[in-house]
Design goal:
heterodimer, A: 136 residues, alpha+beta, Tetrahydropterin Synthase, Chain A, five-stranded mixed sheet, 5 strands, elongated, B: 145 residues
Chain lengths: 136, 145
């Protein structure tokens, strides 16, 4: 088994706010991320797949196909959008980096021919990122 | 669902790799220029990974401010702009980056309660780094990397 990782970038805006918390609790918990006008990031996405190397092609997976799937399922959907207001999965779920990793996993799971999804890593900033391995 | 959050921090410190158990010649052979008598320094990058269930209300593994606060008070404030050889943790240990990585893991494991400490990674330069996942869990995180 070998791992292969493809990176992609998208830029989006979001805010952190839970209707289940009071305004004061939201501000205390989320700080400036709770600003209701939102803010944005250049996100870097790393998609890692696992599989066996095809003895003929020498590939785990066709990189072009992987790139196309990532763009169709994720980048084209999220890029230059407001995650809270425009993306269905975040209508009732805060688009934290953790939830983005889980949502992207769901968007890509079973979409990649010939390989299994291993890890989704989402960088919100160069010094902050979240990983999801499909665990319950 | 279980997810992992990683945060990177920078600290600048000096050290000298030199063991009293070795002769001068052995120190030179083992540590090379790292054994130079007056030490040298690095901008260390400390990457801390914590794991846990994503809270359904907050959408977070843990409060990032709590993680930042813990790392700052226990690690950054302790080591930043210091000479590691003079820290009591390295009184009987050579402050290699391996040992620094273990020391940071120990300091955080003893204090951080908001999520599971999964891994500490310390980058000494852009080209070398060290990782520790805790006793008994060694290899868990690296096999996922």
């Amino acid at each position: 088994m070998i791992l292969l990782t493809r990176k992609a970038e998208f830029s989006a805006s979001h805010y952190y706010w839970s209707e289940q918390l009071s305004p004061a609790e939201n501000v205390r918990l989320f700080g400036k991320c709770a600003n209701r006008n939102g803010h944005g990031h250049n996100y870097t996405l790393e998609v890692t797949v696992e599989g066996e190397i095809d003895p003929v092609s020498g590939f785990v997976v066709d990189l072009k196909q992987l790139k196309d799937v990532i763009h169709r399922q994720v980048v084209d959907v999220y890029d230059h959008r407001h995650l809270n207001l425009e993306i269905p999965e975040f209508k009732h779920m805060i688009p934290t980096t953790e939830n983005l990793a889980i949502a992207i996993w769901k968007r890509l799971e079973n979409q990649i021919e010939g390989a299994k999804l291993h890890r989704i890593r989402v960088y919100e900033m160069p010094d902050l990122f979240s990983d999801y391995y499909g665990e319950a | 669902m279980r997810a992992y959050l990683s945060r990177r921090y920078v600290l600048s410190a000096s050290h000298r790799l030199y063991s009293e158990a070795y002769s001068e010649a052995q120190n030179r052979a083992v540590y090379g220029k790292c054994a130079n008598p007056h030490g040298h320094g690095h901008n260390y990058v400390v990457e801390v990974t914590v794991g846990g269930q994503v809270d359904p209300v907050t959408g977070m593994v843990c409060d990032l401010a709590a993680l930042d606060g813990c790392v700052r008070t226990k690690v950054i404030d302790r080591f930043d702009h210091t000479n590691l050889n003079f820290d009591q943790l390295f009184a009987a240990q050579v402050p290699t980056t391996e040992n620094l990585c273990l020391a940071i893991h120990k300091l955080l494991a003893a204090d951080f309660v908001h999520a599971d400490l999964e891994r500490v990674r310390v980058e000494e330069t852009q080209n070398n780094f060290f990782e520790y996942s805790g006793k008994g869990k060694h290899g868990t995180a690296s096999s996922r990397s």
